Amino acid sequence: MSARQLGMVIDLNKCIGCQTCTLACKSQWTDRDGREFMYWNHVETKPGKGYPRGWEEAGGGWERDGEKLRPGRLPRLAEDYGVPAGFGHDATLFGAGNAPLRPDEPMQWGPNWEEDQGAGEFPNGFFFYLPRLCNHCSKPACVAACPRQAVVKREEDGIVLVDQARCRGYRYCVAACPYKKIYFNPLAGRSEKCIFCYPRVEKGIPQACAYQCVGRARHVAWLDDREGAVHRLVRQWKVALPLHPEFGTQPNVYYVPPLSPPSFGPDGAPSDAARIPDSYLASLFGPGVHAALGTLQREIAKKQAGEASALIDLLIAFRHGDMFRLDRPREPRR
């Protein structure tokens, strides 16, 4: 357990799946040198198999007693990540016959492979976007799994990093992470992962994925900062929840669950039933999702009635700068 913990809250009701966060991360950290298939941050469509494919069923994390690591498997490069493919731009743009744009080699999977597919049957189909990055967990399975002590959790901010000098590429950390957010670099022979943009954080600058989010969906602050959005959304309002808390790693990236449009009945009229099943949201965010959705709906109703709602104002984020509090909270006066 670190002395302090930097956290992030992502409001899924504001994520539009534009992948600006993905591009901000990709262009800054993982665009070359064996990292081409790595997406330290990406946005996947839920329901869906995600990236890497089937990560939710790949194991890792902790057993229910919290003392024993749960076995996990390694994702496969071609089948689960998808080998990055080139495209025949020259033939399409400059060749004869207007050749269609297609991958140079057949692909089996890749990021956004199932984008916007979702689930359900017409007219009640549904999906939503889920941005994912390393959760910088309070009880990281990757740290416990590494026999070289190469995966470390920083004392000053709780950011989890891979010490490249100590790593030997055993990949126990990759198997142990239940979110499959550690990647093996085949060129470097070492594991690599999201570093929570710590060089930016140390200068008081928010993470690239958060700062570039066009939907203002991401809040960043210290968990012990009572004035910060993360503490208020997680601890005070309890509307921001960890992803798959049953994995036992105690994530520090939290999500405001998506609200659902109404379903349509057999006669085509809207019904009171939610389009996104509560049971599915509970399978992602735990049983607390029911209370969180209830709180969101009540506060939205207050705002629509012309009453004040500190929660909705916080989530709207009228000022972009207010979403990020990276300075040290002031000590209370004695």
CATH structural architecture: 2-Layer Sandwich
Which segments are poorly predicted (pLDDT under 50) over 5 or more consecutive residues?
A: 330-334
Quickly count the helices: 11
Write down the overall geometry.
Answer: globular
Total separate domains: 1
**Main sheet strand line-up:** 9-10-1-8-13
User: Roughly what percent helix?
Assistant: 10-25%
The third-level CATH topology is Alpha-Beta Plaits
Quote the distance from N terminus to C terminus.
Answer: 27 Å
Order of helices and strands: EHEHHEHEEHEEHHEHEEEEHHHE
Largest sheet entry: 5 strands, mixed
Radius of gyration using CA atoms only: 21 Å
Structural class: alpha+beta
| Integer average pLDDT | 94
Strand content: 15-25%
Q: Give the tally of β-strands.
A: 13
What is the CATH level 1 assignment?
Alpha Beta
Overview of the molecule:
The chain is α+β, with helices and mostly antiparallel strands. It has one domain: Alpha-Beta Plaits. 23% of the residues lie in helices and 15% in strands. It contains eleven helices and 13 strands. The chain has helices spanning 20-29, 77-81, 89-94, 141-145, 172-176, 198-201, 208-211, 229-236, 278-285, 289-304, 310-316; strands at residues 6-11, 42-46, 128-132, 151-153, 160-162, 182-185, 190-193, 218-222, 241-242, 253-256, 262-264, 270-274, 324-325. The strands form five sheets. The chain has a five-stranded mixed sheet. The protein has a two-stranded antiparallel ribbon with strand order 2-3. The two termini are 27 Å apart. The model is unreliable at 330-334 (pLDDT under 50).
